[in-house]
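To fix ideas, we close by showing one paired sequence and structure record:
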Amino acid sequence: MQSYHSISAEVYNLDKPTGSSFGDVEYYSERLSQVKGKILEPAVGTGRILIPLLEQGLSIEGFDLSEEMLTYCRDNLTLANKEANIFLADMETFQSESHYEAIILPAGTFLLIDDDDKAMHILANFYHHLKPNGRLIVDLFLQPEFSEGSSHYRTFTNKQGELITLQITQSEMNHIKQTTTSHHRYDKWKDGTCIDSEFEIFTLKWYGINEFKRLLMQIGFKDIIISADYCYQQYPTNRNQVITFEAVK
């Protein structure tokens, strides 16, 4: 699993500010609204979803593999006048004395795990950290528009007035491993001069709906509900939809 570094974390914070939603903030707010105990968000990022859930009055904490992302999360918590326990950890190896009523992975975060054995270890670790009848909620998506060799640019301007350019090149689709690999080149510019650069190899996995359901059942999850585009219990009907799994320990 790749970790966001300095410029990529900055771009994420600029592109997806706290509270911005693809429908997921509202969906998770509704699905978690009756939870009385602790909620965990692995790969919490900049707090885009965590902070609105805190503002709803939920007890939620999170961790991330990227210290740069956590720095933005702490800053965003301060701006929102909120507090939460956030910490540096890996999904496969994190250990907590707490057990949670819910663990959530919005926005396809789980697809960053491109190794099958690691994915199973992570799901087992989540299962271990849930209370009896606790829920795991995970967003997945397919990648039907991936086109090997295609490339596009995006640009961002930070509060210092610096220009950040991002070139995304769709490099490889591996049908055997069910992964796509893109190359991301970040350049930061000031007064026409490039002052910093980053390159990352960005790999995402995909799962069939029944395939992922079987993985959850193999771990021990039950009462699995599958929803599409943040419409609860509306089963997916096309390849472009976000697919949300909700499973009970």
